Amino acid sequence: MEKPAIFKGSKEGIILLINPESTFQDVMDYLKITLEEQKLFFSGASLLIDINGKNFSGEELSQIEELFKKFGVGFRIKGEEKVYAKEEITANIDADRVMIIPTTLRSGQLVKFEGDVVIMGDINEGAEVQAGGDVYVFGILRGIVSAKEKIVSLGFQPLRMTISKKTFDGTVTDKSYRKPRIAELENGEIVFKMIGEKKSLRGRK
After folding, report:
1. 52 to 2, 17, 104, 164: CA distances (angstroms)
2. DSSP 13-75
3. Could you count the other beta carbons within 10 Å of the beta carbon of residue 98?
């Protein structure tokens, strides 16, 4: 591997593979040139960075984050859940303290709001919603969501889901996951209920 880093495609999306023998400055210089030359391609993208055995300090990660923000690029480190350089989404808020997002949330986007949040589309993997109220998803939930009392979605495949500080640590195994459901706490555990039914569906651990 001669270059300080290389971009490559995979089933996980775009991967940035770091050359562990390169200096941090060499990596930064390479990224600046590549992102500037191909800014239209990378704009709005979210990358997976494989540090390939090289450790970055907190300051170095901050510099990479600021550089990627400049070009509208989000990223996460392979093996970590945290997503860096997210694009915060804002929308009109009505008097009832509800935020309505009229589109699908793509990887790298973040919604933070103290009230209820309504997503008129999917929450893709790599996107995140942090709500002080409840969350309503008119699509498939594949990303990260935290809510106060309940999450309502047309389908659940969450990367991580938290309700009232309780994190769901199971997996949605039922083949009918695309049916509308409500996720809420029951006896201290997050359960799924079909809309209009009292039966609870639990994820398998």
Report:
1. 14, 7, 32, 37
2. EEEEEE-TTS-HHHHHHHHHHHHHHTHHHHTT-EEEEE-TT----HHHHHHHHHHHHHTT-EE
3. 17
Res. 68: pLDDT tops 70: yes
Does the structure show a pLDDT above 50 at 93? Answer: no
What CATH number is attached to the domain comprising 10?
3.30.750.50
Token pair for residue 101?
């997002």
Q: Give the pTM.
A: 0.55
153, 131 in Cβ contact below 8 A?
A: no
At 113, list the tokens: 């709001």
Tell me what pLDDT residue 132 has.
92
The answer to whether 168 touches 149, Cβ cutoff 8 Å, is no
CATH of the domain at 187: 2.160.20.70
Tokens standing for residue 89: 């989404």
Count the helices and strands in the chain (H runs, E runs).
Answer: 3, 18
**Domain extent for 93:** 87-201
CA atoms within 13 A on the CB side of 66: 7
- Based on the structure, what is the number of domains in the chain? 2
Report pLDDT digits (tens) over 134-186: 999 988 898 999 999 999 998 888 889 999 999 987 676 555 466 788 899 98
